[in-house]
Amino acid sequence: MDKKENPTKSFVLRIDSETMEALEKWANDEFRSINGQLQWIIAEALKKSGRLKKQK
Hints:
- It is built from 2 helices and no strands.
- By secondary structure, the protein is mainly α.
- It is globular, with a radius of gyration of 14 Å.
């Protein structure tokens, strides 16, 4: 059997309730899950800072 590598890694994030509520609303407004919204926010910040190459 071939081992399939999981390209994602899991971690725990502690966040205050006010920030979480704002994040939930933002994610809902854009039809994303909270996890998807966080991934998008992080990817955009990394691109803007030049630390992540833009994907085609």
